[in-house]
Amino acid sequence: MTSKGNLYTSYKEGFSKNLEGQFLFDDQGLEITYRELDSETAKLANGLKELGLSEGDRVTVQVSKCIEMLYLYLACVRSNIIFHPLNSAYKEKELSYFLEDAKPSMFISNQETISNIAELNLEHNINNLFTLNDDGSGDFSSIAAKDSDFVTVDCEQEDIAALLYSSGTTGQPKGIMLSHGNIASNAKTLVKTWGFEQSDCLLHALPIYHVHGLFVALGCVLMSGSRLKWHHSFKAEEVLNSIPDCTVMMGVPTYYTRLLKHDALNSKLTEKMRLFISGSAPLLDETFNEFNQRTNHLILERYGMTETNMNTSNPLKGARKAGTVGLPLDDVEVVVVDEENNLLPQGEIGNLQVKGPNVFKGYWGLPEKTKEDFSEDGFFNTGDKGVIDEDGYISIIGRSKDMIISGGLNVYPKEIESLIDKIEGVQESAVIGLNDEDLGEKVVAIIVSSEELTLDEKEVIAEIKNQLAGFKVPKEVKFIKQLPRNAMGKVQKNILRDTFS
After folding, report:
1. CATH code for 404-500?
2. Predicted confidence (pLDDT) per residue in 27-79, tens digit
3. Contacts for 91-96 with beta carbons within 8 Å, 24 or more apart?
4. Smallest Cα–Cα separation from 217: which of 40, 231, 267?
């Protein structure tokens, strides 16, 4: 007997009628049926068991997007082992923090990272280290057992399926505990909301180390038994070539702005597509309108976050309003409140809160922080400022935490500022996001330097490049005499944004 609580059971209910059908294909000849998917994940699940991993253990994986990572995710889910994916761009300083905090029983990464793991000086000993390189080499394949029969573990919906890290503008990143029920309920709702059927084919060019590519895109396909056109990364020319093979595409706004730069994007190319979805960052009205003019398709914008998966969506049938993230999903409540947690009337900007089966269990090892981010009536404080219009459509006005979203990826200024401030000759710094046609927002560092030393933009960028993932590295550095501050001494980043925009 398998438990209805296990996420994989929910996935399999969706694809079990199409076991011989195609699950995934790419342009390099890779083809996988649902039966093969079920078999490969069973072998890996048996392998994890043989290595001594048990329910609740963490498996951390930091590799480039590949089918093996997808198999491993599902093997962990089937085993009730917590899957912990990391962006492959993270450097040593970031990596050591995540490994120390999550305390995994297994870590999978490329040969170079695994070879140098002693240099991370971890207090936590990781018993199982495996390699998986970009070219597919490494000893990862040795994990899989021969037995392709595995009974999916009986578990509760409240059990943790995945651990993903986010952060505020201060302090260290926080582990977000997403349960089997969180992910399953949201995927089921999205299949219905977006009209997914077995006949669909999803164009998948997203990364799979965060919610958008892993839970939203993959969940919709598995629960509808539809197909996936797999891209290892987003390359505009390759995506344009795949559009005629597909019916749905999910992307970040940067994908759409890059597609619009190509003359090949037109209504003839997109005639078989039924839906283009955008999320992870705000979609500009200009992008929405130009895409509609070129393709006769209105991009469907939605709103989610790591802690909640998806919360709202513009409708499949009905008005899609540019500049809004649509209406609350069927099983999600969204409210706008003031600083005292009082409900605000329609049209007033306030703090956005959400409640529903999609909302995470809490922060890993931080019960006090979890309590702080939930209201007494059980709503999660998103940290976003929002407004609800007369038709119930929600618009995100800004972020109360000065987070930057660059190319669909979250960048937290405090992390970069703390490194810049250590550079000799820096008195203080502020990191802001400025509008960028390609990335949505670009990271810009504003620095007050000491009079004794002359700092160079290239030197600052090079210093940060050695320590942080590329998407966090400032694209520009500006030097000023002093940072604008309010009466409380807080840096007024809104003034900096206005000054340098």
Report:
1. 3.30.300.30
2. 999 999 999 999 999 999 999 999 999 999 999 999 999 999 999 999 999 99
3. 91/466, 91/467, 91/468, 91/469, 92/116, 92/119, 92/120, 93/467, 93/468, 94/468, 94/469, 95/62, 95/120, 96/120, 96/121, 96/122
4. 231
DSSP string, 30-88: -EEEHHHHHHHHHHHHHHHHHTT--TT-EEEEE--S-HHHHHHHHHHHHHTPEEEE--T
Mean pLDDT on 280-309: 93
Give 401-412 as a DSSP string: S--EEETTEEE-
Q: For 185-232, give the DSSP string.
A: HHHHHHHHHTT--TT-EEEE-S-SSSHIIIIIIHHHHHHHT-EEEE-S
Amino acid at 153: V
pTM of the predicted model, to two decimals?
Answer: 0.87
How far apart, in whole angstroms, are the C-alpha atoms of residue 444 and residue 492? 15
Query: Rounded to an integer, what distance in angstroms lies between the CA atom of residue 341 and that of residue 327?
Result: 21
Q: What is the DSSP letter of 418?
A: H
- 172 versus 239: the higher-pLDDT residue is 239
* Buried residues in 142-168 as b, exposed as e (16+ CB within 10 A): ebbbeebebebbebebebbbbbbbbbb
Closest CA to 220 of 233, 236, 206, 232: 206
Token duo for residue 59: 């498996």
The answer to whether 441 and 434 are in contact (CB under 8 A) is yes
Is residue 388 within 8 A of residue 336, CB to CB? The reply is yes
Domains 7-14+28-155 and 194-298 share a fold: yes
| Topology adopted by domain 194-298 | Rossmann fold (3.40.50)
pLDDT digits (tens, 9 = 90+) for 196-223: 999 999 999 999 998 999 999 999 999 9
Please report, as a single letter, which amino acid is at residue 482: Q
Please report, for the chain, the start and end positions of each structural domain, with discontinuous segments joined by +.
7-14+28-155, 194-298, 404-500
* CATH class belonging to 7-14+28-155: alpha beta
The values of phi and psi at residue 409, to 5°, are -110, 140
Q: How far is CA 85 from the centre of its chain?
A: 10
The pLDDT of residue 169: 43
pLDDT band at 401; cut points 50, 70, 90: low
- CA separation for the pair 376, 374 (Å, rounded): 7
Tokens representing 58 are 């963490």
Find tokens 């999978």 and name the residue. Answer: 108
Structure tokens at 272: 């078989």
User: Are the beta carbons of 352 and 312 closer than 8 angstroms?
Assistant: no
Q: Tell how far CA 476 is from the center of its chain.
A: 25
